UniProtKB/TrEMBL annotation:
<feature type="transmembrane region" description="Helical">
    <location>
        <begin position="31"/>
        <end position="53"/>
    </location>
</feature>
<dbReference type="GO" id="GO:0005886">
    <property type="term" value="C:plasma membrane"/>
</dbReference>
<dbReference type="Pfam" id="PF00664">
    <property type="entry name" value="ABC_membrane"/>
</dbReference>
<dbReference type="InterPro" id="IPR003593">
    <property type="entry name" value="AAA+_ATPase"/>
</dbReference>
<dbReference type="GO" id="GO:0005524">
    <property type="term" value="F:ATP binding"/>
</dbReference>
<dbReference type="InterPro" id="IPR017871">
    <property type="entry name" value="ABC_transporter-like_CS"/>
</dbReference>
<dbReference type="InterPro" id="IPR003439">
    <property type="entry name" value="ABC_transporter-like_ATP-bd"/>
</dbReference>
<feature type="transmembrane region" description="Helical">
    <location>
        <begin position="172"/>
        <end position="189"/>
    </location>
</feature>
<dbReference type="GO" id="GO:0016887">
    <property type="term" value="F:ATP hydrolysis activity"/>
</dbReference>
<dbReference type="GO" id="GO:0015421">
    <property type="term" value="F:ABC-type oligopeptide transporter activity"/>
</dbReference>
<keyword id="KW-0472">Membrane</keyword>
<feature type="domain" description="ABC transporter">
    <location>
        <begin position="362"/>
        <end position="578"/>
    </location>
</feature>
<feature type="domain" description="ABC transmembrane type-1">
    <location>
        <begin position="32"/>
        <end position="313"/>
    </location>
</feature>
<keyword id="KW-0547">Nucleotide-binding</keyword>
<dbReference type="InterPro" id="IPR027417">
    <property type="entry name" value="P-loop_NTPase"/>
</dbReference>
<keyword id="KW-1133">Transmembrane helix</keyword>
<protein>
    <submittedName>
        <fullName>ABC transporter</fullName>
    </submittedName>
</protein>
Length: 578
């Protein structure tokens, strides 16, 4: 089996921000400007204790003018602070929203080009969560917490610098007590929190998967009596998620150890400061600066402890998102940076590629394919289909007919062997060229939420109503569309007009007519068709086939009887022809 990239349940959490940085490429200037504003805003806060300290010393010296200057500077700082904080907040959230939007677009783009094999291999709920909830969480974080995080980080850094300027001795004492203790606390926290938060995100993904399964297969679960099984599974996943959330919350309590560190640091500072003042080595104003600034430092640390859970959650979400982007990056992507691996064999995503003739031979050469390692489904199957030929593929369930159809239409790439159209390996063709030449009408055509017209128009080039109506008329399907409540404008899909399996295939055939491919592969619906729909399908297929190659995965004897050439498959091999 070809190596298939899979999303990791616990993606690499190391250097997440560094790995995310290349994705900020287009917004780097904005990010830097926002950061500069944030630093300036923070500086106005950090300067306050220094100005108060200077004021205290002027007061003790009886320097009235100096005191008034300090008061004026404090007032100016307060105004400047207001202005700069507001500006930095606006800038940050604007740039952050842009980055999130670009990430969202990139995810959509990557998922739309991701190989079918990759998409089928992932639990759909988990994929959905990464592509939606986790990006939404990131957006919320950017809006609500990022400005605070930057302010806190800036305050911690700038305050330390200012204190060293005042008294290296007191500042060193502060750091000697404060920094090692905080590092120990943070290390303990990281050790407990990294796996806990990753497990919580993975558990949430599992809940989403189970939930999605219910929505998708509710009919089967109800009629088959499987509701209890599902409920048990859902409760089990919910319980796992609850326990994972409790564990990550417990890891947060480690951060409260920081308060013990705060108490010890204040005590050391007051004892040492008092002694230095008594010895005349520092002024009272300097001790005031230290006391106020240390308070600020502790406030920041306390705020940081409140934010740290949110930051952790966001970093885990970001790591999962980067994992998704790295796993879906195809060979053609320039890639955001060296940390991105390039796993899925991006099939048929070439942007250019050779052009092929409007009618050509379809040549399947010794293709092998496995979904799961060690369980080969097609074992070196070869088949040549001439232009304009009508071929039926028959065989028992599980013989590999649908798999072959997906290989022939380029939805899967063979593990070995190749599929050629007009002498070209499908892998060499651009996505547009491939879609122009080979079209699959699947067994179950999926509807998007919208009108029949919206659904019929889901082909390259977004055809207008006139073109769609002409295609409907060409396939002799006007009586069918006219019979629907609003004709072509009838809403279809969930909660709207229900269409039968055969009618869904009619939609697939109209789409094929709009594309005008050289090869049409029709995976016949297995459901029983009412006589009207069966007749419409027959007429539409006959009209459509004209001079193009038609491959029908035949589930009905009547279809097999009508086809001049029938290939019977069994266990991934051609069993017989005729
Ligand atoms: N997404 C998948 N993951 C794993 N195994 C799969 C997947 N799709 C199909 N298979 C397996 O591959 C084998 C061939 O399936 P395939 O659908 O191609 O057969 P088929 O001849 O089209 O059957 P049917 O007539 O029932 O549609 C089967 O054993 C099936 O269980």
């Amino acid at each position: 089996m070809a190596e298939q990239a899979r999303l990791s349940a616990s993606p690499d959490q190391r250097a997440v921000l560094r790995r995310a940085w290349p994705h900020l490429r287009t917004q780097r200037r904005g990010v830097l400007a926002a950061l500069a504003l944030s630093v300036a805003a923070t500086a106005t806060t950090v300067a306050v204790p220094a100005v108060i300290g200077a004021g205290v010393d002027r007061l003790l010296d009886g320097d009235r003018a100096g005191l008034m200057t300090a008061v004026a500077v404090l007032t100016a700082l307060a105004l400047l602070r207001l202005l700069l904080f507001r500006q930095s907040e606006i800038r940050l959230t604007t740039v952050g929203e842009r980055v999130v939007r670009e990430l969202r677009d990139l995810v959509v783009e990557r998922l739309s080009r991701a190989p079918l094999r990759f998409l089928e291999a992932q639990p759909s709920g988990d994929l959905l969560r990464r592509a939606t909830t986790e990006i939404a969480d990131l957006a919320n974080f950017v809006r609500a917490q990022l400005p605070d995080v930057l302010t806190v980080a800036g305050q911690l850094l700038l305050t330390t610098i200012v204190l060293f300027g005042y008294s290296p001795l007191l500042a060193s004492a502060l750091l000697v007590v404060f920094v090692p203790a905080i590092i120990v606390v943070l290390r303990l926290f990281k050790k407990a929190a990294d796996p806990a938060f990753a497990a919580e995100a993975a558990a949430a993904g599992r809940v989403a998967t189970t939930y999605r399964e219910l929505v998708q297969s509710h009919e089967m679960l109800r009629t088959g009596g499987g509701t209890d099984f599902w409920r048990t599974r859902f409760l089990r996943d919910g319980e796992r998620r609850y326990r994972a959330a409790r564990r990550s919350q417990r890891s947060l309590s480690l951060i409260s150890l920081a308060r013990v560190v705060q108490g010890a640091t204040t005590a050391v500072l007051l004892l040492l400061g008092g002694r230095l003042v008594a010895e005349g080595r520092v002024s009272v104003g300097t001790v005031v600066v230290f006391v106020l600034a240390t308070r600020q430092l502790f406030d920041s640390a306390a705020q940081a402890s409140n934010l740290v859970g949110q930051v952790k959650l966001t970093l885990v979400g970001l790591a999962r998102l980067l994992d998704l982007l790295a796993t879906t990056a195809s060979r053609e992507d320039p890639g955001p940076g060296p940390s991105v691996v390039v796993p899925p064999r991006g099939p048929y995503t070439g942007r250019s590629g050779p052009l092929t003739a409007a009618r050509g031979v379809l040549d399947i050469r010794a293709v092998r394919y496995s979904y799961l390692s060690g369980r080969e489904v097609l074992h070196g199957l070869s088949l040549r289909v001439e232009p304009g030929e009508r071929l039926g593929l028959a065989g028992p369930t599980g013989a590999g007919k649908t798999t072959l159809a997906k290989l022939v239409t380029g939805l899967y790439t063979p593990d070995s062997g190749s599929v050629h159209y007009d002498g070209r390996d499908l892998r060499e063709l651009s996505a547009a060229e491939l879609r122009r030449r080979v079209v699959l009408v699947p067994q179950r055509v999926h509807l998007i939420d919208g009108s029949l017209l919206d659904n019929l128009g889901l082909v390259p080039g977004t055809p207008d109503e006139k073109r769609i109506a002409a295609a409907v008329a060409r396939l002799d399907l006007e009586d069918w569309t006219r019979g629907l409540p609003d004709g072509l404008r009838t809403r279809v899909g969930r909660g709207a007009e229900a269409l039968s399996a055969g009618e869904l295939q009619l939609i697939g055939l109209v789409r094929a007519a709009l594309v005008d491919p050289a090869v049409l592969v029709l995976d016949e619906a297995t459901a029983d068709l009412d006589p009207d729909t069966a007749r419409r399908l027959e007429i539409a297929v006959d009209t459509l086939r004209a001079d193009r190659t038609l491959i029908v995965i035949a589930h009905r004897e009547s279809t097999i009887e009508r086809l001049p050439r029938v290939v019977r498959l069994d266990d991934g091999m051609v069993l017989a022809e005729g």
